[in-house]
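Please, structure for the following, as tokens.
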Amino acid sequence: MDSSVYWFQPQPSSLEPLRKNVSSEVVVVGGGIAGLTCADALSARGIDVTLVEQAFCGGGASGTSSGFITPDSELELSDLTGQFGPSRGQALWEFARAGVERIRETVSALRIDCDFQVQDSLLVARSALAFRTVIDLEHRTHAALGYQSRVYDRAALASILGSPQYHGGVRYDGTFGINAFAYCRALRDALVRRGVRVFEATPAIRLTDTGIETPGGRVTAPTVAVLIDHALPALGLAARAIYHVRSFLSISRPLRDAEIRAIFPEQRVMVWDTGLVYDYFRITGEGRLLMGGADLRSMYSRNGESARHRIAAQLTHRIEKLFPGVNIQIERLWSGLIGVSPDFVPIAGRAGGVPAIYFAGAAAGLPWATALGNYLADKITDGRGELDDVFSPDRPFNAGHSLQPLIGTPAAFAASHGILKYRQKARLAIADGIRFGR
């Protein structure tokens, strides 16, 4: 099975690397969707910007992703309100929704050809317990905060999703899927046309007292914005607050219309489930099934290749169970790293010294990353800071994260995420007098 990233075909070319010293008002480090958005917002305000990217723009977590454009990432609305309270939780949800709308507006304004597919979001329950707790709670939270959603029990779900495996779901609109790599490349090209200096194959190897240092030259700037997701610790930023999870993404051969209708009898939607290690899938504009997943053994590992064959077998088996009778043949399977914090909420802050260094990462989800890039641009130009306490790398995390010095970073993050994901659901299950499990 081909392990190359489907979106990267044909092989993308890179812009020239930095080979001399340059200067600008702001240097942005990172050419993913967050860094590109930050550079876009700054340059639109007339600020002289240089952007450096270690490989090629969109070549990291952004470009290898599934392209789900939804405020949900690792945390649903009910997770945010449960952790931060209704007001603060809704503010974070609106932050992610702003990322959704910025991507939508950019696609329209630049007329980006990125396989823009309007599809509702559908969270489905792997168990009857998950339906009674997670799905029902999510629907009630949407209603309480004035958002529209629709809940489906198991029988009703059959009308919109042709799988016997799920026990119900909750659906809401305003979301879509894209080819995120094509989006990033188009945004990069628009920046270049606007006069932003973009250097690819140019890693920032050191933050200095005048800007950044790269293998080919220095960028002198009074302000540095570092948006390199899980790689922030490599530059000495947010070292204990960011790690990564690994996800695998597969894509099928093009499906016939009848095969797609067997999966989605009415309309195509973007689907993910309530599992701790969850499956997620959607149909691309070419009629291919895009499906992602992982397992606990691979999620926190640095080496994805060793797990690829095992994950391929698991995803193939999972697809056969989900859609019996539909002949779905996987053509490619690749993996990517996604930056995460111990509580799945993004990291953003400012490091002291000269130059002024701003940083952001761990935005698990393209809308969150987009909104984070815009947030950092606003912080640089206008001092924006209403969510600084929530995004601080020094904020308190749960007990799982405190074990990091004892059990190591991968195990500590796994424990922290497990506690966070299941604490509220376990409490609900106990309240219902039901043994927690799935």
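The first strand starts at residue 22 and ends at 23. Confidence is low (pLDDT under 50) at residues 427-438.
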